[in-house]
């Protein structure tokens, strides 16, 4: 039986629908759902709903959050019916329609520009041919058009994304002359970027040093996350391979290369990166891959063993609209960042002096940046000092402030979603929230793709229909 948080007089009842695996081993989307629930709990009654295969209940009672599992659309409907507001990235659209009809407000979490990630993917929904990829991509766009019409409020991660999504929402009929009602852009879509824990990291054991061939005096450069289509692992690998010839203390570590969601697993980009390291003769020596996903509550053991952190990407549309959530772990662990130019965080890191920004694909510049900060302890400490100056801005309590204020404030008085007007008459898609929560992770084989068939199967099972499901 599903359970929701007890009502508290005068505060909203919020349902957070987790978009990915939640448990001991979880990736960014799962961590985000947990963190948002915890951050908002002091201000409202919060229930965290888990429906993705592989999730396991976690104890959040001390944080004021009720955690519940649902196994069917009917159970999700019950959870929605007992709420005033639903916060989600993916949700069964049949359930969403019912929510809108009952005046349960939907807040869509658009913290990553998933259509932008998908459009350049190698494979979409298991399809590689251009015509098939176009078809699957169009179905993804239809889902987000539904979101645009069903949502009462939206959040993005930065101003670039906010502008992208605002245009998307308007072009999708989510804003009409009759519903604008003198609202500003801030009333429609706010900022709720990924954050970092309220407490500082504590190391309980060495995750890297003394293991994997890494010595106490090595200079460890950490790639703190997965390797997806749009990332460029080859450039830092080549940079470290060259550095290791000059100073064998330099080590590059990739952790979490196999996703905890079994539907996603190990992306092809990981194999390509390993091949490059093997060809350069540094696989397992100067370049180390740790396949097992690091449990969320143990990642400090790895982060605090590093001296620097690196994140490199390709030049792409995804780069322009991205928000690299792994950078928050860099800040949390006070690690200077070596990053590629072109995305929002590159501009921020350069402006605040939080590391070094290098041209995309430039091995020599990446090597020089790593060497400069790796060899110069005083330079690293100066960067750490500047990181200290911005860390409070990135605590979850700060990054969720606009979302919190909107939910406890004027959200209930916002105009009804345009979905009720059925302005375009288009049959909009159904999508199952649990597997589709495949989040961004789907794009890499692609992350949208591998989950799509599971979405279809589950919706068919729930609805008893065999129609094509547009996921």
Give an overview of the whole structure.
The structure is a single chain. It is built from 20 helices and 13 strands. The protein has 2 domains: 13-195 and 408-463, 3-Layer(aba) Sandwich (Rossmann fold), CATH 3.40.50; 219-394, Glycogen Phosphorylase B (Rossmann fold, 3-Layer(aba) Sandwich). Helix 9 packs across helix 15. A 7-stranded parallel beta sheet has the order 3-2-1-4-5-6-7, with helices on both faces. A 6-stranded parallel beta sheet has the order 10-9-8-11-12-13, with helices on both faces. The protein has helices spanning 28-40, 73-81, 93-101, 114-119, 130-150, 159-171, 177-180, 185-188, 234-246, 268-279, 299-303, 317-321, 326-332, 344-352, 363-375, 377-390, 396-399, 401-408, 433-436, 447-463; strands at residues 13-17, 45-50, 65-69, 85-88, 105-109, 153-156, 189-191, 219-224, 250-255, 287-290, 308-311, 337-340, 355-358. With 471 residues, the protein is an alpha/beta fold.
